[in-house]
Structures are given as C-alpha cells and as structure tokens.
Amino acid sequence: MNKIHVLDCTLRDGGYCNNWQFGFENAKKITSGLVDSNVEIIECGFLTNKVTYDPNITKFTSLNEVATVIPQNREDKIFVVMMNYGEYNIDDLPIYDGSSIDGIRVAYHKKNRYEALKLCEQIKAKGYLVFIQAMVSLSYSDEEFLETIHIVNGFEPYAFYIVDSFGMMKVKDLTRLFYMVEHNLKENVWIGFHSHNNMQLAYSNAQKLTTVQTNRNLIIDSSIMGMGRGAGNLNTELFVEYLNENVGKNYHLKPLLSIVDKILTQFYEQNYWGYSLPNYISASHNAHPNYAGYLDAKKTLTFEDMNNIFDMMDEEKKISFDKNYIEELYLKYQEKDSVQETHLLEFKNIISGKTALIIAPGKSSVNEKEKIVTCAKSDNIITFSINFDYDENITDFIFVSNLRRYRDLPAEKRKRSIVTSNIPSIDVYLQVLYKDLLNDTETVQDNSGLMLIKFLMNQGIDKILIAGMDGYSPILDENYADQRMNFSTEKDLAEKKNSGIISVLKKYKTHINIESLTTPRFITL
C-alpha cells in the first residue's frame, strides 16, 4: 500500500484569488486549523524578494516573517513555503535551525531547469527539505523528464513533483509520468502531484494515485474549498474525506469546515473561483490560465471566438502569460477589414447639424428615462443606443461592437445597426473599421461607448449628449438596466475601467462638446 500525504496550499495557491490578502489573524487560524485537521504538510505562502512585507499578506521576505503564522504547537507537521525560481536571493536564506519553516518548494519553468536544480541543491545544503516543482510537466519530452530525474537523483531532494499547471492532465498522462518517475527516481525521494481543476479532473486524478502500486511516499496537493486561480485546485475537505473512507487515514473535517465558514466564504463571494468555459478552453490548448482570464474580462468575445484566438497562439508562448502578446492577438483577431459603407454619405447628411444622443445600457438609462425620451423627441437630436435597442420608438441607430450583443439583437433590428468590422454581418446599415475606433487606454481600448463617440467625431458631429454611461461596479446587479447583460467585474478592474473612461472622455472633450444628460453612477464627466 502506498503512503499518501496531503499538502495544503490554501495560503499560497489560494492567494491568486485575493492577492494573498488573507489577513494576519486569518492566516494563523488557517495554519492552526490545518494542524488540527491532521493535514501533514502545510504551505504558508510565497518566499520572495519582490514584495515589501505586509503581515496581512502571505508573501514573505524572510523566514522570521513566516514563523509568525506557524502555530507554537506544530504537532510534527511539516511547514513549507514556495519559492519561484529567480525571485529570491539564496544568500538571504539562513541555515536551517527549526525556528521557522521545514522545507522549500522551488517552482520553475522547463527553460530554467538546470539553474533551478542547482539552486535546489544549495537549499538542501542549508538543511531544508526541498520539494522540486517541475511546472507544466506535460511540456517535457520523455527524454527531458528523464534527464531531470537523473539530475535530481544526484542530490536526492525530499520530493519531486509532477505538476499539472494548466489542469489538463488526463489519467493516461498522469500514470505515464508517474511510472516514469517511479521507475527512475531514487526510492527515498517522495513523489508529489500538484493539479489544477480546469477540466474537473483534479479529484479523479488524485483518487487514481491512491490506487497505484508502489511502496513510495506520495504527496498530493490540495486547498481548502479548492481555492485557487481560475478553476481552482483539488478540494482538501473532499479529498481527506475520501482518504478517510478508502485509504484508512484519520483526518478531521470539522477544522476545515470552520475555516470555510469563518474565513474563505467571504473571499469566494468577492471573487468566484471554480469551473468555467474559459478555463476549460485554456486547458484544452495547454495554455496558461491567465490568458483565459484576460480574454474573458474583455466581455466582447463568444467562447468560439476565444477558442479561435487560442488556436492562433504560438506553442512556446502558451506556457508563460504574456500580457502584451495576448493583447496583440486579441486586436489582430478583432481587426478584420471588411466594411459596408454604402450608406456612409447618406448617414453624414442625416447627422449634419444634429446633436447626437448616445444611450448606453447603464441603470440611469431606466431611472431617468423620462428625461431621455423628452430629449430624443427634439428636432435636432439623432439617437444612438449602444449594443442594445433602448426603445425602438426613439432610437434611430444601434451601434454594436460586441459580438455577444450583436447575436442577441433580433434580425429585424440589425438593418438600422452600425457595427464594427470584428462582427461578421450582413444587412446592416453600416459596417466600419474596428481598429480605427480604438483608443490608447488599455482597460477601455475597445469600450463600445467610447468607440461610438470616436466614430461620430470622425463623421463631423459637433455635440454629444450621453445617457446611461454609468461606468462599472464590482457588484453584479449594479451595472446594467437589463440584468441579462450583467457580468461580474473585480473591484480593481472596475476602478481601472472607470478611470479609463474618464481619461478618454476628457481627451475627447478637447475636440467636441460632450455633456452628460443623465447622472452617471460610477464615473464623472
């Protein structure tokens, strides 16, 4: 029977969900609760030189700082931190004395494996248990993985890990790598498995490892409530219950459930983690999950579009998140060159000498509808709604730059639509170049309202009234008058979008008269 041990990584991997802001007292309660639950190995967070120490954040710059969240009664549990290769100066690491952590997990990409393994050997020489995290293990060829194992055998760390960084490992992949490690790694070195749950396989893969025939010690990583970036991780509370029932272990569930109830639920409500189609798509392409998060945050793409963008990616770019690269791909995908300008001259004549009333779908468009309707009925007003039909009795044109919104628009209303070239369309009034309407502020670069304003400026409009352009709130039901249009926005992103809208509007106001007809809820003009 193999010997299964659980390593809980809530305070480290879970930190991707809350920027590691667990709070000092909460971090201590989590480590104490894990000791009480009988989890064998407890990860306290990151060790890094890239931050300034904050006791409320589980990123540490010294081992003395880590020691503050470790319970006095350690009960023979192993306490560890993770070090990303290149983010901590090994000269700052003291000789092991038992006063803080017991071990260090070193995570590295394949391209850095030789230098990282030398670092691991140095850490072991200082007396620490060393856990080797071969990130994106499936990116290795068999020869590269065997070579890595051979180097590891030369200094015999505490554990060597198979790492499913992108949550796309099937059972056949896991067992192939496991037996490669099992047959070639020195017997005294433990084998670890770290998984993500993008394809909902973390639990079944962990169960599979409990059945493999080996006398070796195994470590399986998990986090309470599955807390982790994107789709999250294997759930500690689920897995330890499985081990109790099927492998004869003796974990205690109540301390874990108390942590969920008193601490983690609040983080889950603020920033959901768990299964999503974007995370599935990134896993199916063996790509970093941050790419999925970035594209999903745009809220302009269908899942089919998102999948098409992943198809465009270079293989070597998939492993590490490159924000500039994915932004370039996104814009390249959106910047299709098809236009339909048959009615452009007619349109210019229609708007000549008129004031444009732009109606965005924010809540103020409903709360102040009487004001909008009264304004729209004036002879000198030409009315545009953004990504929806506000009121067919007063809306002259519908401007659409969001493919999701275009597909929701009834076919009969598309005939008075002005759409951007990223939208495959026929029978629309105008189709204009998407790239010509972008601005240079990243978070709102292709904001539909700002694109429409730029389009109207280009067509010679002198004055614009804005209604319903309220900005963004992190509270789900605060953004749109039509709840079907709602999507969740993290607080930080909502604030960046609001400041971006304000910044671009100020710039545009130097060229054209722009006034707010309704009272914006989250921005100021």
How is this structure best described in words?
By secondary structure, the protein is α/β, with parallel strands linked by helices. It folds into 3 domains: 3-270, TIM Barrel (Alpha-Beta Barrel), CATH 3.20.20; 277-334, no CATH class; 344-516, no CATH class. 37% of the residues lie in helices and 16% in strands. The strands form 2 sheets. The protein has an 8-stranded parallel β-barrel, surrounded by 5 helices. Strands 14-13-12-11-10-15-16 form a 7-stranded parallel beta sheet, with helices on both faces. The relative contact order is 0.08. The model has no long low-confidence stretch (mean pLDDT 93).
Shape: elongated
Number of self-contained structural domains: 3
Distance between the termini: 68 Å
CATH structural fold name of the largest domain: TIM Barrel
User: What summary fits the major beta sheet?
Assistant: 8 strands, parallel, barrel
User: How much helical structure, as a percent, in the residues?
Assistant: 25-40%
Short summary:
This protein has about 525 residues and is of the alpha/beta class.
Keywords, please?
alpha/beta; TIM Barrel; 20 helices; 525 residues
Topology of helices and strands:
Elements: E1 3-8, H1 10-13, H2 24-37, E2 41-47, E3 59-60, H3 63-67, E4 78-84, E5 103-108, H4 113-125, E6 129-134, H5 142-153, E7 159-164, H6 171-184, E8 190-195, H7 202-209, E9 217-222, H8 236-246, H9 254-270, H10 277-284, H11 289-298, H12 303-311, H13 315-318, H14 323-334, H15 344-351, E10 355-359, H16 364-367, H17 369-376, E11 381-386, E12 397-400, H18 403-408, E13 417-420, E14 430-432, H19 448-458, E15 463-467, H20 491-508, E16 513-516
Parallel strand pairs: 1-2, 1-9, 2-3, 2-4, 4-5, 5-6, 6-7, 7-8, 8-9, 10-11, 10-15, 11-12, 12-13, 13-14, 15-16
Helix pairs in contact: 2-9, 10-11, 10-12
